[in-house]
């Protein structure tokens, strides 16, 4: 069963296979292993588990994915069998009907969904917008399909360093960040979500990843000591109460720390909430809540709580089933510390998400995901959505925090953070949303755009004369409301188009003109309308006069008749000489593997310089060159992956590039002079601008220098770090 494995792969396979045998003990039916070995063995012999698009051994990838599915997600028999059987079914070495006969309908159904999604990756390493609907349809049919895809993506990210193709590596990392991490979050797989985000950052911005990792390693001893100081008295008090519990510190993920550094524009040392304390109670279901609140009481008696930071997901769990009690307290030394309190059952759901949730089926909080999946199916059924809109609609609510609001009768609704009265109205019913004019929130009259807060009691006010409007799309934030508004607007537009068509045809008939559809289409295009529907909507809204349209139609026919039509012989036709309208830049680039001399622009968002790892992006202004760790790179790959072209620098650079550096240090006398003198001494480099600010004994500033390439830049950064008092230097 080992296929064409090299020496290292064979050793890894044998270790993983032993782990798999231990993990599946007691999960499979008596004959499963024998039947599976037969099918897989025959498939291996016929080359069904060769190398994939990334050069990885499919047999080893299948084994490791099945282990993640079992041990880290916790999905059982049918899903594990599907992971193993999908490759031979996809290679037509085994029929779905045979799988169904041997292993059941459940396994065969999952395989069908996996094959649909895997086919998207056969042609290209990235999921582009036009493929997204297929991916989501498979997901909506059986959520286990996406759980397996998340497991496979986690394995790919763990071995991405062995993938030789740099473009494939970046695509895999980008997708892990913008698609699979949000999905993991929604499905409650928080541990996997954090690992995907960290690994994605590692490949997309290695400098930032290494910087934070080094800082965390350097401060580990101090964090451990503080953890002990914080936990020790808590442990003593909780033990005295006779509670069974486990208590430990948990450091924030590198990705979340990086986000905080970028958003708050602070240095690492200023981040005080680097870790949280987690208290996990081993207690029966019926005592979970009371003991969690008992622990909360102990914690807040010992340490001053921040009242605005209490998060109660015990009373109302998140839509993905997450239950926990979070509070932030002032620990020793005046440092804020987040404390998470939950039961062992809740902790398992937080670690393994949906799979653990199924295990505890019947416990409050399980319906939220079903509601969300129903909404996904509704979005998919709305075929008029463009692929980009589909992605946006789908991703809304993946990461959003939730609020809880109530009807006057006390019925509970969960909505995304930032939801308005109009969102709530559509959550109740489409008819209520379509006729909504205002609301009473906690007894006070408010407009439809009023943003709701958790705990609000909302009484929707309607009017039979109200109709959905285009600007409503700017008011709502929930995907359900957006979908229903779009559907209503489309139905209204269709009615308007029908009336406008009837009016135009009647006027043509009155003037005894037989309308030619071809001429009318050319007239619509000439008037600048992108679609025929837009043209008729303009008539319906009286933005276009019908009689003027007919006059324009008659004029167009006359002009076309006056134009002399001449036929040109293909035999005598000579193509015009090609015009060379591109200009090569001084810093020569190789674009798309072998093209040089192509006009390009250096993107202003990331200021690439000679020597940077780069890619090209085909825009309306031509090809723009970006750094691979450009702040906009993820969004470009996510929405416009088909416009990305490979690019690399060629030869030597003789051109000066502007680079901005952010520098932070102690506000010592002469430090700015020392920094500028280092730059002045460097040949082929000049200081273009400097902006410095000083506060609380620290200075921070931005330097813009002109230099030739990354080797010169790296040398400068190294020398600046050697200046006494300089603590941190980052390139923008």
Which characteristics define this entry?
5-stranded mixed beta sheet, 732 residues, 6-stranded mixed beta sheet, 27 helices, alpha+beta, globular
Mind explaining what this structure looks like?
The strands form five sheets. Strands 1, 2, 3, 4, 5 and 6 form a six-stranded mixed β-sheet that branches. The chain has a five-stranded mixed β-sheet with strand order 12-16-14-15-13. Strands 18-19-17-20 form a four-stranded antiparallel β-sheet, covered by helices on one side. Helix content is 49%, strand content 16%. With 732 residues, the chain is α+β, with helices and mostly antiparallel strands. Helix 2 (32-45) runs parallel beside helix 4 (77-90), helix 4 (77-90) packs across helix 6 (105-123) and helix 6 crosses helix 8. The longest helix is centred in the last third of the chain and has 32 residues, at 479-510. Mean pLDDT is 80; it is low at 361-367 and 564-586.
Number of helices: 27
Write down how many β-strands occur, each being a DSSP E stretch of 2 or more residues.
Answer: 20
| Rg (CA only) | 31 Å
Look at the helices and sheets and give the structural class. Answer: alpha+beta
In short:
With 732 residues, this protein is α+β, with helices and mostly antiparallel strands.
Layout of helices and strands:
Layout: H1 7-24, H2 32-45, H3 58-73, H4 77-90, H5 96-103, H6 105-123, H7 132-141, H8 143-158, H9 166-186, H10 190-204, H11 206-218, H12 220-240, E1 245-251, H13 254-264, E2 275-281, H14 288-302, E3 304-305, E4 311-312, E5 325-331, E6 335-343, H15 344-352, H16 354-359, H17 367-381, H18 387-395, E7 402-406, E8 412-416, H19 421-428, H20 430-434, E9 436-441, E10 444-446, E11 458-462, H21 479-510, H22 517-526, H23 532-540, H24 546-562, E12 589-591, E13 600-602, E14 614-619, E15 622-627, H25 633-640, E16 644-649, E17 657-666, H26 671-681, E18 686-695, E19 698-707, H27 710-721, E20 726-731
């Amino acid at each position: 069963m080992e296929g064409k494995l090299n020496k290292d792969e064979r050793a890894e396979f044998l270790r993983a296979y032993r782990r798999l045998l231990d993990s599946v003990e007691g999960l499979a039916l008596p004959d499963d292993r024998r039947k599976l070995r037969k099918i897989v063995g025959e498939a291996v012999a016929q080359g069904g588990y060769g190398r994939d698009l990334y050069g990885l051994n499919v047999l080893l990838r299948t084994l490791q994915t099945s282990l993640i599915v079992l041990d880290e997600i916790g999905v059982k028999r049918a899903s594990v069998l599907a992971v193993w059987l999908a490759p031979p079914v996809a290679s037509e070495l085994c029929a779905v009907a045979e799988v169904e006969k041997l292993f059941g309908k459940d396994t065969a159904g999952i395989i069908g969904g996996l094959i649909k999604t895997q086919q998207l990756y056969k042609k290209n390493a990235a999921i582009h917008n036009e493929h997204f609907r297929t991916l989501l349809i498979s997901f909506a049919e059986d959520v286990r399909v996406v759980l397996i895809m998340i497991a496979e993506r986690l394995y790919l990210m763990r071995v991405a360093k062995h993938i030789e193709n740099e473009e494939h590596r970046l695509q895999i990392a980008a997708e892990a960040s913008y698609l699979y991490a949000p999905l993991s979050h929604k499905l409650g797989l928080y541990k996997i979500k954090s690992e995907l985000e960290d690994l994605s950052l590692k490949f997309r911005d290695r400098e930032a990843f290494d910087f934070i990792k080094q800082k965390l390693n350097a401060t580990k001893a101090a964090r451990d000591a503080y953890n002990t100081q914080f936990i020790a008295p808590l442990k003593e008090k909780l033990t005295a109460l006779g509670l069974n519990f486990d208590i430990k510190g948990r450091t924030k993920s590198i990705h979340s720390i990086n986000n905080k550094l970028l958003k708050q524009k602070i240095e690492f040392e200023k981040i005080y909430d680097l870790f949280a304390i987690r208290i996990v109670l081993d207690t029966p279901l019926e005592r979970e809540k009371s003991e969690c609140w008992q622990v909360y009481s102990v914690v807040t008696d010992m340490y001053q709580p921040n009242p605005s930071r209490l998060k109660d997901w015990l009373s109302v769990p998140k839509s993905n089933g997450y239950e926990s009690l979070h509070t932030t307290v002032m620990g020793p030394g005046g440092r804020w510390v987040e404390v998470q309190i939950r039961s062992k059952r809740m902790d398992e759901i937080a670690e393994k998400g949906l799979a653990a949730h199924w295990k505890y089926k019947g416990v409050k909080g399980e319906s939220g995901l079903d509601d969300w999946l129903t909404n996904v199916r509704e979005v998919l059924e709305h075929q008029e959505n463009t692929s980009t809109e589909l992605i946006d609609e789908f991703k809304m609510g993946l990461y959003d925090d939730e609020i809880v609001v109530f009807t006057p009768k006390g019925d509970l609704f969960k909505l995304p953070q930032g939801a308005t009265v109009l969102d709530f109205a559509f959550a109740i019913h489409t008819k209520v949303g379509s006729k909504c004019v205002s609301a009473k929130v906690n007894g006070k009259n408010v407009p439809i755009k009023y943003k709701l807060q958790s705990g609000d009691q909302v009484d929707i006010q309607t009017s039979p004369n109200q109709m959905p409007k285009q600007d409503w799309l700017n008011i709502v934030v929930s995907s359900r409301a957006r979908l229903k508004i779009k559907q209503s607007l489309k139905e209204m537009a269709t009615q308007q188009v029908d009336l406008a068509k009837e009016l135009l045809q009647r006027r043509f008939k009155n003037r005894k003109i037989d309308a030619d559809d071809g001429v009318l289409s050319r007239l619509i295009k000439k008037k600048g309308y992108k679609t025929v529907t837009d043209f008729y909507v303009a008539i319906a809204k009286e933005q276009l006069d019908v009689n003027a349209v007919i006059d324009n139609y008659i004029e167009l026919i006359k002009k076309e008749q006056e134009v002399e039509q001449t036929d040109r012989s293909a035999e005598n036709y000579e193509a015009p000489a090609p015009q060379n309208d591109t200009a090569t830049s001084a810093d020569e680039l190789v674009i798309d593997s072998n093209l040089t001399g192509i006009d390009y622009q250096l993107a202003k968002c990331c200021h690439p310089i000679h020597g940077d790892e780069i890619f090209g992006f085909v825009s309306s202004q031509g090809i723009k060159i970006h750094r691979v760790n450009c702040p906009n790179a993820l969004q470009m790959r996510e929405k416009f992956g088909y416009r990305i072209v490979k690019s690399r620098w060629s030869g030597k650079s003789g051109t000066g590039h502007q680079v901005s550096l952010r520098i932070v240090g102690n506000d010592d006398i002469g430090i700015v002079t020392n920094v500028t003198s280092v730059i002045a001494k460097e040949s082929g480099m000049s200081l273009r601008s400097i902006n410095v600010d000083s506060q609380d004994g620290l200075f921070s500033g931005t330097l813009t220098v002109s230099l030739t390439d990354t080797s010169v830049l790296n040398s400068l950064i190294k020398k600046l770090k050697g200046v006494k008092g300089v603590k941190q230097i980052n390139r923008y």
